[in-house]
Every structure is written in structure tokens, then in C-alpha cells.
Design goal:
mainly alpha; about 55% helix; Endonuclease III, domain 1; about 0% strand
């Protein structure tokens, strides 16, 4: 199966299974999405969604969050792990958004990545899901699936992102990112994965592009 046919096959399968994928992190605007994505580092989306209601009831905008003591933020987000670093980042980025961006979450990669605790993946998620800017955030699921499907060589997430962007149409990047996450969780997990039962691996496996 050549690259074009493989791309179409994957797109069609994902569309059949997850035609309208929902954003897995609960949020109401770019700011709450930014905070939720920051919290999701090394943490499951499900756990983040259990923590953010209490946090956002306390403060769901930069102005209110900037007034919350870092220790209080840390106490609430402790189940997400890395709470000292994440609490400081949430407090600091809230103040920067107020001072430098008039309390509005910036909508460029450079500005987002300049914020404390915001790396390229977090910025990509916010750009894609909050501002509808083409991006292909790579998490562990997408990194794993891209290797298994022969899209990327699996060396690092930077290469995986570059490969996915080259492999799939730009107008589908944001949707495919979500579809691949859901597929990875349900059909193509890291452990106890049975390729012959997987709707995509059973057909294409790791073949074609790097053999």
C-alpha cells in the first residue's frame, strides 16, 4: 500500500469510528483549555477533568487565578502530579497574560510557548482546539500509532510531528489528532495490543514506508 492509499485508508477508518471527536479535556474558553492542557502533562485527561472543576470554581480566568496563592493551586491540582511546578506555572502565566496580553490568551505559537510551563505540544493543542489553527500535537498515543502504522520512524516526537504533517492533509490535522488519541485508547494501546484484532494495524501494520 503506497503512502497516498495508506493515508486515505487511515483517514477513512478513523472517520468511520470517530466522526465527530470531542475535545477530551473539559474547558469553556482558551484560558481554561490552556490550564487543562498544562495539567495533562504526565497525567491522564480523566484525572485532569476530575481536578479542574474545583480549580475553575475558584478561578476560571487570569485575573482571579493571579490572586490565588500558589499553595492553594498546588493543593487542588496535586492529583495531577508535578503539582509544585504546575501550580507556579499556572500562577505565573496568568499574571503574564494579564500584564502582556490584556488578559487574553495569545493566539500565536511563539507567544504561547513563551509562557511558563507551556511547551510546543501544549501550544499546539491550544492553537488547534481553541483557535482553529492547523497543528498536529503529538502525545504518547500519536507517537505510538505513527510508528506502528509506518508513518514515522519513532525516534522522537519532533520527527513524528513532522512526519504526520507530511503524511496527512493540513485541513484534517486537528481532527486527526483527536481521532488518533481515541483510537489509541480503544484499539491500539501500548500494552495488551493485538495487531490482528486492530482495525488499522491488522491491515497495514508497520510496513511500506521504512522497509
Amino acid at each position: 500500500m503506497n503512502k497516498t492509499k495508506k493515508s486515505k485508508f487511515i483517514i477513512n477508518q478513523l472517520e468511520r469510528l470517530y466522526g465527530e471527536p470531542a475535545v477530551p479535556l473539559a474547558h469553556k474558553d482558551p484560558y481554561t483549555l490552556l490550564v487543562a492542557v498544562l495539567l495533562s502533562a504526565r497525567c491522564t485527561d480523566a484525572r485532569v477533568n476530575k481536578v479542574t472543576p474545583e480549580l475553575f470554581n475558584l478561578a476560571d480566568n487570569p485575573e482571579d487565578m493571579a490572586l490565588v496563592p500558589v499553595e492553594r493551586i498546588q493543593q487542588i491540582i496535586k492529583p495531577c502530579g508535578l503539582s509544585p511546578q504546575k501550580a507556579r506555572a499556572i500562577s505565573q502565566l496568568s499574571k503574564i497574560i494579564i500584564d502582556s496580553y490584556k488578559s487574553i490568551v495569545p493566539s500565536t505559537f511563539d507567544d504561547l510557548e513563551s509562557l511558563p510551563g507551556v511547551g510546543h505540544k501544549t501550544a499546539s493543542v491550544v492553537m488547534s482546539q481553541a483557535f482553529n489553527v492547523p497543528a498536529f500535537p503529538v502525545d504518547t498515543h500519536i507517537h505510538r500509532l505513527s510508528y506502528r502504522w509506518g508513518i514515522s520512524n519513532g525516534k522522537n516526537v519532533v520527527q513524528t510531528e513532522r512526519s504526520c504533517k507530511d503524511f496527512f492533509p493540513k485541513n484534517l490535522w486537528g481532527k486527526l489528532h483527536l481521532q488518533m488519541i481515541y483510537f489509541g485508547r480503544e484499539y491500539c494501546p501500548a500494552r495488551n495490543h493485538y495487531p490482528n484484532k486492530c482495525p488499522i494495524c491488522s491491515i497495514i501494520g508497520r510496513k511500506s514506508l521504512f522497509n
